């Protein structure tokens, strides 16, 4: 059968990247983590001491920066920033704190979106982000909106942070996610939003396998 283009959007911590990666692996598709691309840019800004509010400097930085995604053996993404592997470093709380603002710079988005579209051109892709179904790949065969309650998303993010060696209080993680939601829902054409054609999946209280089966069911029917 024809290889599908699948968009997966949703708020931070809803389980999108976990699900997208598994679904891509099951289908033999390429998984593309677009958030990781913006995180790499945010990391570079941090390193250069460029403020997340300095649009001009950020745009100039983007023009001389190379962000590349590579497929890892387990079907995930390795993130290369100017050739350096920054896959682990881009998950730091410092990056999470500024990435939404950095990713709002139109010049940076234009550069990343061009690459994202190129990666989806021949189909067989599961792309995870915020504006994939609405803006990056409006013609996607399937558009999922993956969500979960704020409390559950904060709990999951805290576990993930711990596994990566970062300690954080639940209340603090919840506040950080709520702030990012707010910013992510107010980015004009690139806002996180549920589309009329979105298949909404609430992962609150569900096992990963259960949700994977649900998503694969939709893929089979498409
Ligand atoms: O998915 P993740 O939480 O790693 O994304 C980090 C941030 O990058 C998001 O909070 C959002 O502000 C931004 N982003 C975006 N558009 C995308 C993917 C991520 O603006 N397609």
State the oligomer: single chain
% residues in beta strands: 15-25%
Number of strands: 8
Uncertain runs: none
Order of strands in the sheet with most strands? 2-6-1-7-8
Ligand list: cytidine-5'-monophosphate
Total of helices: 9
Question: What string, H for helix and E for strand, traces the elements in order?
Answer: EHEHHEEEHHEHEHHEH
Write down the overall geometry.
Answer: globular
Instruction: Output mean pLDDT.
Output: 95
**First and last CA, distance:** 10 Å
Radius of gyration over C-alpha positions, nearest whole angstrom: 16 Å
Largest sheet: 5 strands, parallel
SS-derived structural category? alpha/beta
Helix coverage percent of residues? 40-55%
């Amino acid at each position: 059968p024809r290889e599908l283009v699948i968009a997966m959007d949703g708020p931070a911590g809803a389980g999108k990247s976990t699900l997208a990666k598994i679904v891509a692996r099951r289908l033999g598709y390429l998984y593309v983590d677009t958030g990781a691309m913006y995180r790499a840019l945010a990391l570079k800004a941090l390193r250069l001491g460029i403020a997340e509010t300095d649009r001009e400097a950020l745009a100039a930085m983007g023009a001389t920066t190379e962000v590349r995604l590579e497929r890892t053996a387990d079907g995930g993404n390795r993130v290369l920033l100017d050739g350096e592997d920054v896959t682990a470093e881009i998950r730091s709380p410092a990056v999470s704190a500024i990435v939404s603002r950095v990713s709002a710079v139109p010049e940076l988005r234009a550069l990343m979106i061009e690459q994202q579209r190129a990666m989806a051109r021949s189909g067989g892709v599961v792309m995870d982000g915020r504006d994939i179904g609405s803006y990056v790949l409006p013609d996607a065969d399937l558009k999922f909106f993956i969500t979960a309650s704020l409390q559950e998303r904060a709990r999951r993010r805290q576990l993930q942070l711990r596994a990566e060696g970062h300690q954080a209080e639940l209340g603090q993680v919840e506040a950080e996610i709520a702030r990012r939601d707010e910013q992510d829902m107010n980015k004009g054409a690139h806002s996180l939003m549920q589309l009329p054609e979105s298949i909404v999946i609430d992962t609150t209280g569900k096992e990963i396998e259960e949700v994977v089966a649900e998503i694969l069911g939709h893929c089979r029917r498409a």
